[in-house]
Fold each of these.
Amino acid sequence: AAARGVGKDSTTLRQIDALERLMARDVLYRREVTGRIQVSDRDLSAGMKRYPREVRVLFLHSPDEGAARSMRQLVRRPGVVDSLLQTLSPELLYRVDSMNVTFGIIDRVLEDTVYALSANRRLSGVFRSETFGWGVVAYLDSWPFADAQKKSIPDRIHQVENIVRARKQSDRAGTYMGSILSPQRAEADPVVFERFAAALHGVMLTDTAARATRNGFRFGAHDLDEVERILGADVHQPLVRVSSGSFSVRDVIDAFKSREFQFVTLHPELFRNRLNVMIKDAVGSELMSREAYKQRLQNSDAAQHDVRVWAEYWTASAMKRALQDTVTVQDDEVVAYFITHAAVLGRMYEVNVREVFSDSLHAALTILERALGGTPIAEMAPQSGRRAWAARGGVSGFFRVDSIPELGITALITDSGRVGGPVRVDHGYSVFEVLGKRRVPGDTTTNVPPVDSLLSAGRRMLRGERQMQVVTDAVSDLAQKAGTKVYEERLRALKVNESNMVTRRYIGFGGVITAVPTIAPLWEWKDPGRPKDIP
């Protein structure tokens, strides 16, 4: 592909550029965050005390700190929390939630507060939860944490270390990211924002069910492509202005493609509020990519390796598509393909025709000419033909397609009521009118194309087979020219995990991609025709 200049199109180059920004940012994250994290014995000891225990509490919500302090004064006496909750005014207590807390939850302030409680100290002090705001928690009960009980001691230590490390990374990332972003100012163009928001909102409303998730609505890359199409030239307009260089709508769309976002609601105002936050997050990540470029981390071995893996995959895919695009299929080829496979395909369908059977092609062409000129097939059928059908006006009745493949297949893909032929059959030629076609009554075969779409389905199947073959032939030729050798004894010795999986890779400072390309099987080029006995 590289030798032929394939993969140098604007779409592929844009993908590679976006990926390079991600990989440079990830290298920066590993250097400034993960590479600087240490989990101490003290950290592990504290986590091991909490991890085996699950705690159930009541969270008493207050509107502000003063109300929380007043509420706590009223409920602080031991044993009277439950009885007093119903008497407190909404100005002090506006909601009560029961919750189970385990080690490793996102809200660390809440976790620290809960694990300081016990049967002897049932009420916390006033605090502000990162998630729930101001309030007080009351201890209800605790028991062994089920997940921890299933693990051995080494596995518990490993899990606690992972939790502590992830928290330290989050803290370090926030601090470092803040040091880079705080001196900068980004401002969105309100007019361009409204156009972008309206386009994305409109696309998502076209089929809300397809975009619905358990907790809201999610868009995909194809939705962003459609937004780009709708906006046209406006995608090049600056959406966010920054002193170091503006971000266009297209830049933001590219950033969105490597992130996972969700809208809780599609209410227009709330949708725009959420989109505003999403753009802010994406721009923040892209500014971290710019910092990575300043430090020339895009040239690091790690970044270049990851980019090369995907760039070669995209280039090879473009080459594969270029080969496949050379394949064309004609309708007469589809008919021949179906006739060849009539033993399988034909047993699932039946057709009913009115036929005029002739001994010669010349006679059949004459009959076809008369039929196309307006003479009804019904008038000619009794006058010509050697089949038993001629005695009943040339009407065959429904017969299984595989019993007379040449006639049955041709009739099957001819529109009902239309005249077809001449078709070469045993001992002569057939001109026919299609009276009906159907699935064989009682046939339960699944994934069978509907009768009316059989021709288009056959065209896809035949084209797909030919596309596979043209790629296989091309790879086979290239492999021979390159002197490719497969060491089968080494291949057989490989230990293979029989579980298929798709792994996601989370990018430092925001973003997520498929960890490695998913490559379709392509091994038929190796010794064509040989039994495929290599696992």
Amino acid sequence: MKSSNNFIAVIIIILTVYWSYSDITPTVISDEKELTATDFSLKNALFHLKNISKKTHHTGSPEHKIVQKYIVDELQKLGLTTEIQTQTAINKKWRASTTVENIVAEIKGKENGKSLLLLTHYDSNPHSSLGASDAGSGVVTILEGLRAFLAKNKQPKNDIVILFSDAEELGLLGAQAFVEHHPLAKNVGLVLNFEARGSGGASYMLMETNGKNKKILSEFLNSNPNYPAANSLMYSIYKKLPNDTDLTVFREKGNINGFNFAFIDDHFDYHTAQDSYERLDRETLQHQADYFTSSVNYFANANLTDTNSKTDYIYVNFPFVKLLTYPFSWVTPMFIFALLIFLFIIYFGIEKGKITIKGLLKGFIPYLISSILCIGVSYGLWKLILIIHPEYADILHGFTYNGYQYIIAFIFLNCWILFYIYNKFKSQKTAELFVAPIFFGLVINYFITQYLPGAGFLIISVYAALIIFSFLVFSDIKKNIAIILFAIISIPTIYMIAPMVHLFPVALGLKILFVSALLIIVIFGFTLPIFHQQNENNKWQKITGLIAIAFLVIATFNSGFSIDKKKPNSIVFIQNSDTKTSYWATYNKTLDGFTKQVFKGDYTEGNLPFVKGKSKYNTNFSFHKETENRNFSTSEIIITEDETIDKERNITFIVNPKRKINRYEFFNSSEITIKNLTVNGAFYNGGKKFVANEGTLLIYQMANSDKNVTISFSIDKNVKPDFTLSEVSYDLLSNKKFSLKPRSEIMMPMPFVVNDAIICSRKIKL
């Protein structure tokens, strides 16, 4: 009987995990016959997506203009007047620049309040991403969402501004150009931004605000989304991370609040040639559509004059209520009250003989041992797996194709460790063993009150554990009934925490699996009375061990590459035009059939000494090899101004390409103070004086409207500038001076790095 009740409790836990995911994921409507003209049609959205994601369409590419025209044509079919905002922009943080071509349209409202801005970007990542998810999904969500909205033939109260920004992938440049230069930006009261960092999974809501979140969160809930996926821990972590979206520009430069709606599962597709129409999860697109429909219908008629607040709210997905919310100010009192209840129960437990001081102290031993083992094994085993599978290092974002299988394997491995350790203490009283998990839960929540109040909802799990603890101390309830009761009480804990177990390694890479281990320890600790079986063999240890082994075997079996799981690789040709020497280089740690066609015989490990730049993940070239110099012509540099006034030297020069150049990278070899730096007339840092450290000075992506690049700046007359210019073209595989074999069907260009490129580097003589 006890074992059957234990099985029922486990079924409750499994169903709760499923529930926590199903509540934040919509089901795709397979038959759209019952939809009306005012309903969002996934079929229509997918039709658009197929058309705009046929080829890579990064800023400056021919396909970029084709996608731009497609979007403009679709907006005009809806009766909207469109505008192409052409403006050079420079991002100070990323030292990035280009001449953007934003697509702007507007729906006039009945009143003169603040406007609602609908935002996504239409450029794909250079140079090989198809951009179906990032951010083609946002483009088609807005296009089809607008069609359904306008079909109601009802004028909104607020103006609705539509912005398909350009050059987001280069450094949020389109958003910056709009905020700083477009007149419509001055009246924006709220932004809805649709983004992606993968190709599937639930779409999470992340807010951007310079103030507190109470009002903007309340308005989000008033919009009544059907599948809200959000919690304030993600919000707090997001604010601390360097990751940015277009919405960040609106908050930082325009003091405008807004919402990001973004999905991150299947992270291995992010910025790759596999970010395709076929691989975008349809349920994920439906989730974006649900956010769009509920948000636009509400905010188009809401008061957007002031969305700031003086209060921050905790919020978390919670059973039956979608999002549970309460003020940050409650976090500390809730912690103190929980601590007092904890001490109260321990005191009476000792008084009633249910707990002994020796027993509760002994109960810390298995919790500490299992915690150290789970975290240590998770961290160390992943390091070992990377040694066994060195090819994983070439997946730069750190989430492998078999990543979900590893997550499952590590979850059950941690469970096996926990069961194994606690089986050694099966004769000890459950109440005594339960003290340690609650104590450490309180410790975690103390640090939360001090450093991460957005995670304040975790105190709810402590309260659930305290209720179970009180039953163990004050009640003589039969164990077979208690097990099921404890599982029911634990539902909020499992519901809140379970999705985060997979969320962290997906978002931040499998190197973070030890964080998942920590969350497993927390869940296990708070549900310990369900599994602690005194004087009985715990069969769950064997079951979890077998599942862990099975999924490790499955992950190993699926560690290779295939048509659907392509291997990323890279080759670039680098010409040092000053020394007239040339080299092959690659970012790959593991060479394959594609890279070995040039890296055979003698080659050197490490970076080239004259190469200044690094990839997004700060990785240098892994190997290089000297090769025949092809004598590529370099751009003409014309100095149009070089005069000294008082103590300042003013320099202006034009870079005229002699072949098709996709981007220019300017580096300085020593620290230098620069003033009035402009690129094609646009000021860097507002023209203010700044100190440029050694390294990247500026990266300029050539846009379709660019013929050349004009650089102007002022320096101290006694300082000799030491600049290096790298000219990058993405034509290595098509250039007639080479005869490289193309990649096989199980390979693709490595993302996040300059790839398939010819790079000509030289000093600029000024």
Amino acid sequence: LLMAEKTYAVVGVAPEEFAYPRGSEVWFALRPFWAGATQPLHVDLVGRLTPGATREQARAELDGILRQLAAEGDEFGENQTAVVRSFADVILGDVRPGLLLLELAVAVILVIATVNLANLLTIRGIARRQEFAVRGAIGASRGRLVRQLLTEAFVLGVLGGTVGVAIALWGTEALIALAPAQLPRLDEVGIDGRVLAFATAISLVTAGLFGLGPALGAGQTQPATRLRSGTRGAGTYGIPRGPWQGLVIGQIALALLMLIGAGLLVRSLARLQALDPGFQPAPLLLAELAFPYSKYPTLEQQHALLARIRPRVEAIPGVASATVVLNEPFAGNSGHDAWFTAEGQSAEEYATNPVLNYEGVDGTYFQTLGLPIVRGRALSEYDRRGSAPVVVVNETLARRLWPGTDPIGKRIKFGSPDQPDPWRTVVGVARDARYRELKEVRPTVHVPFEQGIPGHPRYLVLRTGTAPVVPALREALAEIDPDVVLLEAAPMEQLLDGPLAQPRFNTILLGLLGGLGLVLSAIGIYGVVGYAVSRRTREIGLRMALGARAVDVVRLVLRQVVLLALVGIAIGLAVALVGTRLLGDLLYGVAPTDVVTFAVVPVLLAAVSLLAAAVPARRATKVDPMVA
């Protein structure tokens, strides 16, 4: 196998389903790379704990190894702390809270749907009491009536489950298209045997469970008693008030909880989308390059190559300026961090310093990104190896280290006070930018490549016009060295969508589920109120014959719905005040108890509940007293 200018012998084949890290197809032994590396390699260790061992024990053991390395003079062990995380946490990362939230939301929707089913079957059971009395009078046993109702409930479950699976087969593809690329195991998402079995079980168990109550009550009334009463008992008290009211209240409370969660995510996403990154993302283009490291094994050679590439790229028509960066935008944990000491700090003060976001840049970085310098100067082409070490800090770091004083001329160094790193003079203060993470402005230091911590810069940022420049960029790279490959080029605005992808996905899904919960609740209220109106036809006709107006009939029907809605909203608000705190990690710039959301959503739900009840209420006003 010829790869990266070397030939490798294939010694094994991994199972098809094994792909760690994600997308991997070929695995190499690390030792040859480690032995031939000219710069430090950054690696992750994956280990399996011995039976009975805990992560805390593993962390303590690794800390001991680091201390031993430091005592032996190995720089690797200095200023290092072991961090041990479960494999599941590493794979799921920031996605876990969103997935758990969506699981909970789906469970709430299931509860709302089953409450609707319970309402339906209960009402059907009440409406068919006369039928059951007739069946019982002609010889049907109670067991036979129970079996009939359970069979009908299971038929509903099978039909509903079948329709649900059909919708899921279509909807899954749409959701995968909307899902962020970093969603773990996205390529494995689909409808398989386990999903079908779960859907079948849920459909049948739900239908059977909520069909059991009406079925058991079908034969409780003696046929003779029921037949003698006929339909004269059809009036105000035809519905069991306690269970019915509880189910309606529960639906409204759960729907409110769902809608408040969706509303909080919508407001959070709006805040994220409105964030100012601090630099001008349009029209920037990020290009990732691949170097033949056998031809350019040292950092000096790589820097020299980039020094030749950048002027040639800037000569491309449509390219206003270009710069070389160490980290791609919004790299998050994949960016570079650095410990530092400010001049004059003691060891105790050093221990309280934040970890810096380290950006290795060249002299055109601030000009190309449109990142303003608010004090002092930007880095220049003259800040190179052999000249005085300099840095540019951001406003957040300047305020923290030198509040109320001019930071220009102050000095910092990387590492602890006794580290050999040279003191670096602050020559400028840049505006705070969200280049590393969109949600957070971190203390940041910008260091010239040739004066910085060793790293392999491989990204170009180009400020372009409207004309496409990627083909010309490939030609320019080929002129410098045909072995330098352009791996990928993407507009900065497209990269800006990366940090928004997961919040947007969570918002869309929870919004859809919240809307579904609202619709289901409205359908449930409509069905129950409609049945209640039909049971009170005689009463309504009598009231109208005695002079009641249409508005009086509507008020009569809606009064109880309003009371139930208020109780359900009150319970939902109480639960939401506690439950929305679970959304804390998913929100940005919005409190879990956001006043606007908690004020708007109850009004919306109350309006929808009244609208759902108003349709059968209006139908009640059309009752002909003589017919009734």
Amino acid sequence: MHSLLVLASLLATPAPAAPLPEATQEAAPLIPERPQLMKGEIARLDPYGGWRDNSRRAPELLALLREQNRWTEQQLAGQQPLAKTLQAEWQARERGEPLPEEWLTEAGSQWRMEADGSLWQRSDARSAPRQRLAPRQPAQGYYEIAAWALHPDGRLLALAEDHRGDRDYRITLLDLASGETLASLPHHASDLLWSLDGKTLYTVANERHTLRPWQLWAWQAGKEALVHQEADPAWLLSLYRTTDNRHLVLQSNNHDGSEQYLLDEGGPTLLRARERGLEYYLDTQGERVLVKSNQDGAMGLYQAPSLTSLAAGPWQPLWSGEGRELEKWRLFAHHTVLQYRKAGDDWLDVLDAGGKLTHSLALTEGAGTAWIQGSQDPASQQILIRRQGMAEAPHQRWLDLASGQWQAADKPVANPLYRSERRWVVGKDGVRVPVSLVWRKDITAPKALLLYGYGAYGTPMRPYYQPQVLSLLDRGFVYAIAHVRGGGLLGEAWYKEGRGQQKQHSVDDFLAVAESLARDPAIDPARLFAMGGSAGGLLVAAALNQAPTRFAGAVLQVPFVDLLGTMQDPELPLTRQEYGEWGNPAIPADYAAMRRLSPYDNLHAAPYPPLYVTAGLHDSQVPYWEPLKWLARLRAHSTGAGPYLLHTELEGGHLANPRTAELRAAREYAFLLSLAGVRH
């Protein structure tokens, strides 16, 4: 590994954008056309639609994917030393900068579940952790634990396990004393919770094919019974417990509404019937009944006289969300704590038991982020807050709720080698788009730029600390996040201006940020690169269609690129629940907007830049055939030299296989670094 001094000298003169080192001249293996008529409100012929195989087992398909993988690895052979160097750097940083661990308090102890399925227990924060369950991760293949629920007395453990990567989880019940499997439930589920008395395990089962969480089942003494079923295909079920552990809540919701039931007596008791556009979320602490709701427009906090009065009202307003975005809230015996965003920054308000504001604190400013950490003891007088920034390693502090003063704990550690900031870019229609940036201060030559974007579902792409990104910065990159409309950094209105028929705003914002940064004298305009995953892959792919020469290369991770094809198929997972996000093709105006934007349908003759695209064979959110079809069609249209690389994880899904996630990231970064002319 180079020393920082040597790296700085190596990067004093940047290399121009360059082809991949030692790439072979072998042509990309052909992905033959397989035309298929796509049915819908408007039928259309998809030239590669026949490569869809719901079974994922067709020999010809698997042979094609393996051949594409082989060619991609061959093209990247020359960058393998760089990829290995990156992995070594990341592992060294991980050892040197351990992240704070999150423990849950259950059954009188603190518990933590590792990614490999091992369960650790400690009596308190000062005691040494003790492993209760050996790793369940198999020697090979995919493995992920999505959720776990510990029995109230600590004897039994329920796990939601994924062995394929399709997020269709099997529920396994284990005896912690013996490690034996007591039961494997016949249905696949996504959520699980023990009843308050420990007699019943509730699970939310997935619908076949669509994987929609739609049925509530109760397991008791080896027998299961169906308790509740959500009939509306656009609505999803989930479970949670109230803060005081006195109530179990079954929740049904879609993009802009919710409905809740109490499970205290076994069968669900409706709290308030669903109303279009109304969201409400219950929590209780002793006799206090609080509700997070948008009943007055912005999401605020209200107090109800009792559980039985939720439907009738009135609810007493305690905290208004006007001009701010409520994200988390916690109830304590004598306080209520609210975490929210205002103008993109994180804030914390503390209310007393009567709902009066006693403290208001700014948690971040600019390119940083902070949030309430984990579960909290409602009897406590303090709350744990985690903070980090793009150049600031994660740390956590306790806040005294009575005084509003921070207690002695971890202090912010900003690495002096790096600088981060938030900028505002004027977009195409005059909006101001926030951008988070980080770079290395002692490298003064014009830098390459990696621009990341997502912009969907109201999700704020927070400026997290990413140790892997430091390897880019050390080699002369700026890393930037474009907080485009459709994301949630600036609140609900910012989100709505970038979804459905307004989705083009997301692309306009992304390209406006790229153009603005290209004019920065500190950045080399010929070495701008883009990255996006899932819905962010749609953002980047649409930007490439509309400005194919703006970027020198791009990485698209499991990209959602066949917008029309997916939204016209209601049998696919998520489609019916996503009409509010992307539009309903049965509505002419929605269809027209999707047709103008859909990356797959708008490929055209243009010099597209080099691309590295990933897919997961068992991906249930973005099926493998979307990246496959898109790349095949792009190769047929592009007048550029490429390469256009596709790598499909054959033992994985939407998330990278935990076994290979680091290798995949190293390949992606090495691909971009090589295009930027960096070899070491």
